Amino acid sequence: MMFKKLATMMITAAVAVGFAMPSAAAKLDWTFQSSDRPGIFMYQMAEEFSGWVNEMSKGEIKINVAPTGSVVQYNETMEAVGAGILQGEFTDPSYFAGQDLAFGVIGNTVGAWGHPSEALKFMRYGGGMEIFQELYDRYNVHLVGVVVTGVEAFVSKKPLRGVADLKGLKMRAPEGMVQNVFAAAGAAPVNLPGSEVYTSLEKGVIDAADFSLFSVNQKQGMNDVARYPLFPGFHSMPLQVVTLNKDIWNSLTKNQQTILETAVWRLATEVAWQYEMQDLAAVKEARSQGIEVINWPDAERAKFRNIAREQWDKVTGKSPVAKKYIAAVVTYLSSQGLM
Q1: What's phi and psi for 212, nearest 5 deg?
Q2: Which residues span the domain enclosing 140?
Q3: pLDDT 10s digits, 303-337
Q4: How far apart, in whole angstroms, are the C-alpha atoms of residue 279 and residue 272?
Q5: Which pLDDT value is given to residue 17?
Q6: Which residues form the signal peptide (predicted)?
Q7: Which residues contact 235 (CB under 8 A, 6 or more apart)?
Q8: Is residue 320 part of a domain?
Q9: Which end of the chain is flanked by fewer CB atoms within 10 Å, N or C?
Q10: Which CATH number characterizes residue 138's domain?
């Protein structure tokens, strides 16, 4: 079955010749599929990344960015990278949680992070990258680096000053870890599609929602009907990954590897800072409209993290890598006075 699936993927990749034709100028000509489509900010940043790599390598490395679904399906990219059908990917690792729960836990460690810098420091200096690579080793994939897409804000019609105010709160949260953590904190979460969040808030079906970044919420009018948003967020900050076929990675010179790692680090900081600038501008606008933006004190954030930790522990028994990763997260957060 696996062979047939890979064969089908190869045929699909061959059809997408526009993305994989060798270049006369570049010594290395790769296709990286994104989980986004053209026009989306993260897709544009993937194209920026491609340009940086080409420039730093003096034209030796060319990366063609392919949109989601153009070569393989969004949830097949890791397998395709390992097989060499794609050379790399820009994606959300949570798509592969069916392979190992650790992909979901690492892709969004609910309640862990209050700022992109916290997650990036942990991944780079707290052992996160090394543990994540242990997981990717099974699939012949090398993790070049991670990107943080920003801390999601929390939409609320009621002023929430701390964890105690979550008790009985009717709120929207997606199924899985996010919903489990909020339920453990005393809230009453329900699953609603994103398209129904605004009207559900407006009609009083829910009083709060896990939705998106503050700037997105502000643009979509969420803060007009829910005038007590929490920012910076405390509950959700997804990661995206940049990966490369492991055989290709091992064949590269040290200089080429360093170029890729440097480009990912730039990508991570560019994305985090641009999102943060957009959020802060949106916060200023919201406050000028009389919206009260609430920022939880560190003590309340630590309380929420400890509630989340209990939910993390419930899934780590099903994945040795998840267990090791969460242990490292707890050690890091404790060392930084965040838990």
Answers
A1: -155, -165
A2: 2-149+237-278
A3: 999 999 999 999 888 899 999 999 999 999 999 99
A4: 11
A5: 36
A6: 1-26
A7: 110, 111, 152, 154, 178, 181, 182, 210, 304, 308
A8: no
A9: N
A10: 3.40.190.170
Q: Angle at the Cα of 44 (from 40 to 47), degrees rounded to 5?
A: 145
Render pLDDT for 164-179 as a digit per residue (tens, 0 to 9): 999 999 999 988 889 9
Please answer whether residues 65 and 47 qualify as being in contact, where contact means their C-beta atoms are separated by less than 8 angstroms: yes
Q: Are 171 and 189 in contact (CB under 8 A)?
A: yes
pLDDT at 2 over 60: no
Determine, yes or no, domain membership for 34: yes
221: three-class secondary structure by DSSP: coil
Place of tokens 């339920």: 183
Tokens for 327, please give them. 């242990």
Residues in the chain: 339
Residue 155's H or E segment, with its range, is strand 154-156
Residue 86 makes CB contacts below 8 A (sequence gap 6+) with 13, 31, 32, 33, 66, 71, 72, 77, 80, 245
Q: Is the pLDDT of residue 18 over 70?
A: no
**What span, in angstroms and rounded, lies between the C-alpha atoms of 78 and 91?**
9
- The 3-state DSSP class for residue 216 equals helix
